[in-house]
Write a structure and sequence with these properties.
Distance between the termini: 35 Å
Bound molecules: nicotinamide-adenine-dinucleotide, glycine
Radius of gyration: 20 Å
Strand order of the largest sheet: 1-2-9-6-5-3-4
Largest sheet: 7 strands, mixed
CATH architecture of the largest domain: 3-Layer(aba) Sandwich
Number of domains: 2
CATH topology of the largest domain: Rossmann fold
Strand content: 15-25%
Order of helices and strands: EEHEHEHEHEHEEEHHHHHHHEEH
Number of strands: 11
Number of helices: 13
Shape: globular
Oligomer: single chain
CATH class of the largest domain: Alpha Beta
Helix content: 40-55%
Structural class: alpha/beta
Length: about 375
């Protein structure tokens, strides 16, 4: 339970011209009219969620939205990464069409990154685009997936391979929802929080190390700062490079190895955040191998991930299988593997890496 006073709501703006929006972060936001003010008033809203999250929060969201809409529909998608696919996406389209939803209909994504990514993709493509709002309920979604407009579904051959860039109208992060999150999901979210330190903010990395026990204990002040600082960093990156022509790639630190773990084991066997945490450990070892960072850095990151209760030994899919899976990565060009590497604490770089260096890193670190 939260051990320190509830912080007041704050807003982190994302500057994207006429598609700018705010991330609202705070406690008790269901009952805070300001968090929902200014959203379009329309005939219909569709809340997309899953059974586990809807049971906990659909009623509260419905009450928050009641002043804005004549009709509020709820759709529960099957839970889990294994269902982030065409079949689930199609359930959203079927519901929208069967209910006669027009292009003013507003979609609300109530849940973690799986619900958020699919709802966003549905919003991007239904009638060529309808408005949507992210209401993230996992730490991972609050610090990363709900922010910045990447939407996608998985394909058996590759993670997040089919999707669109499409920004929400707003992101509403109610920290209270983190109280019901299973411990394993909290740790998965911490992986994406940790990510922001090495890639963008050495002081934040120090802060996470100092506050990790408070974060694991769900101290509300510590979580509020972690969400706010993570969103500030992501907002700055996205404002500069919305469509990942360059800088935004740094947000994928650990993801090249991580996506291979997820696809290789089968979606949902490891949580996305777990795969990213282990992927960051491998990418930091690769940074050391290439002479960009001292060995102490990789040890420091590994210890922090271990303390966050994340797995740090990569599953042994075989080095060749890793290479095969990583060549499908969106950063790969012409079959050449490219990785986000750390070149100074708080600064990342995207580099092509020879297969031999990747093989050597895998050989040293597979479970
Ligand atoms: P998730 O959406 O599967 O949620 C994790 C689990 O927690 C689910 O079982 C869910 O039902 C449950 N849950 C959610 N909120 C809860 C709550 N408050 N209380 C209790 N249970 C709750 O997983 P995730 O970690 O939130 O998201 C991972 C997904 O996000 C991956 O598909 C990943 O690719 C995607 N992602 C996208 C981006 C992006 O920029 N779009 C960035 C990072 C990750
Ligand atoms: N999570 C990576 C990105 O949003 O670009």
């Amino acid at each position: 339970m939260p051990s320190s006073p509830v912080p007041t709501a704050c807003r982190v703006p994302i500057a994207l011209g006429d598609r700018s929006y705010d991330i609202v972060i705070g406690s008790g936001l269901w009952h805070d009219a300001a968090a929902w003010q200014g959203l379009p008033r329309a005939a219909t809203a569709l809340m997309v969620s899953n059974p586990a999250v809807a049971r906990l929060y659909a009623l509260a969201l419905r009450e928050a939205l009641a002043p804005h809409f004549k009709r509020i529909l709820t759709l529960e998608l099957p839970d889990g990464e294994a269902h982030k696919d065409w079949a689930s996406l199609n359930l959203i389209f079927e519901r929208l069409l069967s209910e006669g939803c027009d292009r003013k209909t507003v979609l609300f994504a109530l849940g973690g990154g799986v619900v958020g990514d699919m709802t966003g993709f549905a919003a991007a493509s239904y009638m060529r685009g309808v408005p949507f709002v992210q209401v993230p309920t996992t730490l991972l979604a609050q610090v990363d997936s709900s922010v910045g407009g990447k939407t996608a579904i998985n394909h058996p051959l590759g993670k997040n391979m089919i999707g669109a860039f499409y920004q929400p109208l707003r992101v509403v992060c109610d920290l209270d929802t983190l109280d019901t999150l299973p411990d394993r999901e909290l740790s998965a979210g911490l992986a994406e929080v940790i990510k922001y330190g090495p890639i963008a903010d050495a002081d934040f990395f120090d802060w996470i190390e100092a506050k990790l026990d408070a974060l694991l204990a769900r101290d509300r002040q510590a979580l509020a700062h972690a969400v706010q600082r993570s969103c500030q960093i992501k907002a700055a990156v996205v404002a500069e490079d919305e469509r990942e022509n360059g800088l935004r790639a740094i947000l994928n630190f650990g993801h090249t190895f991580g996506h291979a773990i997820e696809a290789g084991l089968g979606y949902g066997v490891w949580l996305h955040g777990e795969a990213v945490g282990c992927g960051m450990v491998l990418a930091s070892e690769l940074s050391v191998r290439l002479g960009l960072m001292p060995a102490a850095f990789a040890g420091r990151l590994r210890r922090l991930c271990e303390r966050a209760r994340l797995p740090v030994r990569a599953p042994d899919l075989g080095a060749e299988r890793y290479l095969e899976l990583m060549r499908i990565d969106k950063k790969s060009e012409g079959g050449e593997l490219r990785f986000v590497l750390i070149e100074a604490l708080g600064r990342a770089t995207l580099r092509a890496v020879p297969d031999a260096e990747v093989r050597a890193t895998l050989a040293a670190h597979l479970a």
